[in-house]
Amino acid sequence: MRIDTAAGSILCDPWVNPAYFASWFPFPDNSQLDWETLGQVDYLYVSHLHRDHFDAAHLKRFVSKKATVLLPAFPTSEMEDELRELGFTSFLRTRNEEVHELDGGLKIMIQSLTSPTDGPIGDSSLWVEYDGVRLLNQNDARPTDLSTFAELGHVHAHMLQFSGAIWYPMVYELPQAAKTAFGKQKRDRQFDRTWRYIDDLKADHVFPIAGPPCFLDDELWQFNDIHGDEGNIFPDQSVFLSEYAKVGGTNGVVLLPGSVAEITTDSCETTHPVPVDEFFADKVAHLEEMRERKRPVIEAEKASWRHPEIDVLKEMKRRVEPLLEESVYLAKGVGGPVRFDLVGYDGESVESIVVDFPGKEVRPYADEKVRYRFRTERALVEHLLHIGEVDWVNSLFLPCRFSAARIGQYNEFVYAFFKCLSRERQQYAEGWYDEHERSSDAEDVTIGDWVVQRRCPHLKADLTRFGIVEGDQLTCQLHGWRFDLASGRCLTSVGHKIRAHRAETPAS
Ligand code: FES
């Protein structure tokens, strides 16, 4: 998205090239826009380092290096470092949730989310005001609520994510019926969360953005929402409009690449390169045409992944064992071995490697019970080791080029650990969990028949707003985590106990 005002232009998350081992492509295709012109901007805003937001090749080639980067206040300097590498030199290091006045009366505020589960250690939203018009590009950030923005005055345009951007449940080795049921739950939850955010802000116009991606490699084609699968987690913008209409939403605006929306305090006029309805009616044809056109790009990427000279076990030992050694909270949170089955180039031979969290070592699999098992191509891991990737969630899991099985519940610490394969990131994540473990969450509230701690044990959502109690179970609607109130046990993930007891006088 590019925001143009008389006081300057801001280019937001220009993503064009495929991300995550050529798995995700932007849909609709935006590669044929006039990027030479679009890249001539005054400001650049990149919400976070996920590769479907931070497209290094595109930033390098097309975005003016005279642009000032509006930098979120993230705990590590990685984003600034990477942008400097690409040639950017002018940075405005914003302060979290503070309005900054730029030249010509343009005002911006960036809210940075910094828990280890937010993006690749950090995600953010951009608020902009010019000439009385206010816009929130919430993107795919998930703040607990939008009050920080609402307090700055009525918002006219609200851009937010509504679709899926994860590998769950598709990659799990589950019977198809279970996968469909979990997928459907997830799809419903994504929409519920979106309605809640929209309701929080009550903007004049709502723009569904930030996904879904499309999958053009034949191996991943089934993930596109074109097969009538009600458990598909990647509904598109046209589905958003019809679902939104069911809950009474009439102010949704869909933009295609090349669409322009002129927003004033009392109107929103849009022009589109082709009629939006027609475009989505032809979605399968568009995807098939893209698939043919992008085939060489995918093939070229695939050819670059193999590094047979790398001894994966040895290299993983060298990279991961020092981190295991230093890890306290993450290693304890994982609490068991995690197995990687690496499929060789022939598609059949398998090397099994275990990251043993209690034993603090990386070693060959020893016919044991493991907490998680991931099965993927050896070449992908070779490539990550070759480039020294520090975030395997960003790069190995988001591509969806793997299958997974687990014993027991979802374990967020597994993903937090593999997102933090550098000392800097790991220290940050360890410190974050340490602080949260210590912080006493003293305030209790009554919800239905129960007195519970006010803040969700997951990421501190206010349960007076997000908590729904049904019988003895509480669901926090921010990410859908469930808790058994009688025992306090979290039913969604390991750890994260909730404090709760039955109310003597139930709340009305
Ligand atoms: S904050 Fe994530 S489920 Fe409650």
Give the tags.
508 residues, alpha+beta, Metallo-beta-lactamase, Chain A, Nonspecific Lipid-transfer Protein, Chain A, Rieske Iron-sulfur Protein, 3 domains, 6-stranded mixed sheet, 5-stranded mixed sheet, 15 helices, 26 strands, 23% strand, binds FE2/S2 (inorganic) cluster
* Order of the strands making up the biggest sheet: 7-8-9-10-11-12
| Amino- and carboxy-terminal Cα gap | 45 Å
Rounded to the nearest angstrom, the radius of gyration is: 23 Å
How many distinct helices?
15
CATH superfamily of the largest domain: Ribonuclease Z/Hydroxyacylglutathione hydrolase-like
What is the oligomer described by this structure?
Answer: single chain
Reported CATH architecture of the largest domain: 4-Layer Sandwich
What structural class do the secondary elements suggest? alpha+beta
Give the amount of beta strand, in percent: 15-25%
**CATH topology descriptor of the largest domain:** Metallo-beta-lactamase, Chain A
Largest sheet: 6 strands, mixed
Chemical compounds bound to the protein? FE2/S2 (inorganic) cluster
Helix content: 25-40%
Parts with pLDDT < 50 across at least 5 consecutive residues: none
What is the molecular shape?
A: globular
Task: Please give the domain count.
Answer: 3
Mean pLDDT: 93
Count every beta strand, where a strand is a DSSP E run of 2 or more residues.
Answer: 26
Protein name: UDP-MurNAc hydroxylase
Keywords: 2Fe-2S, Iron, Iron-sulfur, Metal-binding
Organism: Micromonospora sagamiensis
InterPro entries: RibonucZ/Hydroxyglut_hydro, Rieske_2Fe-2S, Rieske_2Fe-2S_sf, SCP2_Rv3818
